[in-house]
Structures are given as C-alpha cells and as structure tokens.
Design a protein that fits this description.
101 residues; alpha+beta; two-stranded antiparallel ribbon; elongated
Length: 101
C-alpha cells in the first residue's frame, strides 16, 4: 500500500535534514495518514479511506465527503475515490432528473 492520500494525492517527499554545521542528511518526510470512515449522505453508506489529517480538515470544511468529491479533480483522487465520485455523480443525476413514467 502506497503512502499517498486517497483524496488529495499528497505523498512522501524527500529532502535533507540540515545540521548547525550545514551537513546534509537524506530524509523522507511522510504524510500524516489516518484510516478513517466517512459517511456519504447521497449514497447512504460509509466509506473507508486512507487520508491525511489535512484532507480530513478539508472534507469537514467543504461540508462532508459528497461536497469534497464533487469539487475534487479526478487526477488527485485514488482509484477507489474515483469510483465513489462517479457513483455519487450518477446518484445526483438521478435525483435532479426523475424518470417520467
């Protein structure tokens, strides 16, 4: 499993730890990933995702998982998140244009 946020695409970065004497030591900076269960109101089910703490705050700020996924770009999302977004778009399209019998 890669160390990448499923919603924002934030991943491992590399760099240097620099001492007082200016020696550089290679280092990996890992994202703060959390395994969370988020509730989708439109789909009426829970979704387990591995996201960063920053992404979790963004989801709360935008008003929930549904609102976050609607605004999110597909490039940043993981494969699982893309499937959820497409499912959500289909559900919202059904609600907006009901089929006349």
């Amino acid at each position: 499993m890669s160390r990448r946020c499923e919603l924002t695409g934030k991943a491992v970065q590399t760099g240097h730890l620099v001492s007082h004497s200016n020696r550089k030591t290679k280092c990996r900076f890992l994202p703060n990933l959390c395994q969370v269960t988020l509730q989708s109101d439109a789909l009426k089910r829970r979704v387990r995702l591995r996201v960063t703490a920053h992404a979790l705050r963004s989801v709360e700020h935008r008003g929930g998982l549904d609102a976050f996924l609607i605004k999110a770009r597909e490039i940043e999302l993981s494969q699982a998140a893309r499937l959820i977004k497409r499912e959500l778009q289909k559900k919202l399209a059904e609600v907006e244009t009901p089929v006349a019998a």
